[in-house]
Design goal:
The chain has 516 residues and is of the alpha+beta class. 47% of the residues lie in helices and 24% in strands. Strands 3-2-1-6-5-4 form a six-stranded antiparallel beta sheet, sandwiched between helices. It has a five-stranded antiparallel beta sheet with strand order 8-7-11-10-9. The longest helix has 45 residues. The chain is elongated, with a radius of gyration of 33 Å.
Length: 516
């Protein structure tokens, strides 16, 4: 069992980290698309704050605008702050302030322990909101705006370099988009500004002209213009004015097909694809530009080769951890089966009937736990258990122990976390064996039923019989002195569930509602 626990966090952490970075990549792509169509500077800054907080899993973010007089930083947009902060609160712009340091030096600032910070003072605004961590990056300067994008947190995970990369990319997009919007609003000449805008970002950008054959099939494209990051992102030098077939003759046809559809349909597309001829993976947003008859396509893209390789490594690690966990569960199941066999042998050798009964009860409990591990090593996922299979097999094994009784069961296709399966299996074991022992006195036998249904709030388990019911002298409440009863109540509390008991005659019914 120790091996099972030691491998699980590593696999879960690897998968969680992968999902976390994937989300950041998606948020950057979403902001890029939003920025291309946004005409409201305030909405642009506000959306940047929202994605900054969401991408770093924090509650606070703000855009700080520098005011030369009186040399401070105004909170012009933000999320998470108390009423009256945005548009009014200010922070010092000197080197003693984290945000001021980022503004004046251009260097990003990460402070994970503001209460112990010796490099800077903690601004009063952050103290008032209980902020313990902060990360500041410079928004690329334009002709009319200087400022800082800051994310703050009252706790949670510490900020790391990968978080800094995400926030800087977001700030670059914000600065570039703000500059583009001001240029459009002022109706200035677009050419020089346009190139400056896209050369300021890390992502690759190009405009291509599609070539089609006489049957309107895409056969090639020419690079009309590229930004400075283009060569770094693709490895293609001096691409402007040249055809892709000349630069990379083995470039796959599906790339031409995708861009051809964008040019012909006028519909943008976002996708991730491998360019084997270039030895790289790309995250791409392609959209039509210019007039329809010009067959021009704009392409905004990022080389994600490193991320894809990391995904492969992490996926291999997760698969390895799951394989180890299944192997551990298999071994635990075999060990518990051995313990169950030993208990069976010991029970048969016991001379006292009460001792034999006690040992038999212990054996069924051990085998109920073994049944969970049997399911774990057989199925593809380790985090959840299919109750239809698990409880069905458990009921079948319980039926084998008592041929005089008919154990009927109906179980919905419901999956629950693995750590809930063991207590649930033990509850079923206790209630069924209790019915076998006491519901039908003598040698008459009878029916016992196990039903599990999904509800709007969780799942409901019912174990019922048609026997004599609970004697008046038996109290199955929370204060019961019965060992089986105490076990059921303890396991019910462990599941956060509620237990109700109905007793006839005829029969008894135990109802357990488990929230999900």
């Amino acid at each position: 069992m120790q091996n099972d626990q030691s491998h699980s966090p590593a696999g879960a952490a690897a998968a969680s980290e992968l999902d976390y970075r994937r989300q950041q990549q998606q948020l950057l792509s979403d902001f890029g698309l939003f920025a291309l169509g946004c005409t409201d500077l305030d909405a642009l800054m506000q959306h940047a704050c929202e994605l900054a907080a969401r991408g770093l899993d924090t509650e606070f973010a703000k855009v700080l605008r520098y005011r030369p007089e009186p040399d401070d930083l105004l909170v012009c947009r933000g999320v998470g702050w108390r009423p009256g902060v945005v548009g009014h609160a200010t922070i010092g712009a000197d080197l003693g302030s984290p945000a001021g340091y980022a503004l004046k030096t251009g260097q990003p600032v990460i402070s994970n322990h503001l209460d112990a910070e010796t490099r800077f003072r903690t601004p009063a605004l952050l103290v008032e909101h209980g902020v313990r961590r902060a990360i500041n990056v410079l928004i690329p300067e334009s002709s009319e705006f200087r400022g800082v994008l800051e994310v703050d947190s009252t706790g949670g995970h510490e900020f790391v370099d990968a978080d800094l990369d995400y926030l800087q990319s977001l700030a670059q997009w914000l600065g570039a988009a703000m500059e583009r919007q001001r240029v459009e609003d002022a109706k200035r000449s677009s050419d020089q500004r346009y190139h400056a805008l896209f050369d300021a970002i890390d992502a690759g950008f190009c405009v291509i002209e599609m070539r089609f054959d006489e049957d309107a099939h895409p056969v090639d494209y020419r690079f009309v213009e590229v930004n400075q990051a283009f060569e770094q992102q693709t490895g293609l030098a001096d691409a402007a004015g040249r055809w892709m077939r000349d630069l990379a003759p083995a470039h796959e046809q599906h790339w031409f097909d995708i861009y051809g559809r964008v040019a012909q349909s006028g519909e943008p597309i976002r996708f991730e694809e491998n360019a084997e001829a270039l030895g790289r993976w790309f995250s791409v947003y392609a959209f039509p530009v210019g007039k329809p008859d010009e067959q021009l396509v704009g392409i905004l893209f990022t080389d994600i080769t490193a991320r894809k390789r990391l995904e492969e490594v992490l996926q291999d690690k997760v698969a390895h951890q799951e394989t180890l966990m299944r192997e551990v569960s298999h071994r635990v199941k075999n060990s518990l089966a051995l313990v169950g066999s030993m208990l069976h042998m010991q029970g048969r050798a016991a001379g006292d009937e009460e001792v034999r009964s006690t040992i038999a009860d212990a054996q069924t409990r051990v085998m109920a736990i073994a049944q969970v591990h049997d399911q774990l090593w057989r199925q593809n996922q380790m985090e959840r258990i299919d109750l239809a299979t698990f409880l069905g097999d458990l009921c079948a094994k319980l039926q084998e122990t008592e041929k005089r009784y008919r154990l009927r069961y109906a179980i919905d296709l419901v999956a629950i976390p693995t750590d809930q399966a063991i207590p649930l299996g033990l509850i079923v074991n206790e209630l069924v064996t209790n019915a076998f022992k006491y519901a039908y006195p003598g040698e008459t036998g009878g029916d016992v039923s196990v039903t599990l249904r999904g509800t709007s709030n969780g799942i409901r388990l019912e174990v019922a019989d048609e026997g004599v019911g609970l004697p008046d002298s038996v109290d199955f409440g929370a204060s019961t002195t019965s060992l089986g009863g105490r076990i059921v109540h303890a396991l019910t509390r462990q599941l956060g569930a509620t237990l109700s008991v109905e007793s006839g005659p005829p029969g008894s019914r135990f109802i357990i509602d488990i929230p999900q």
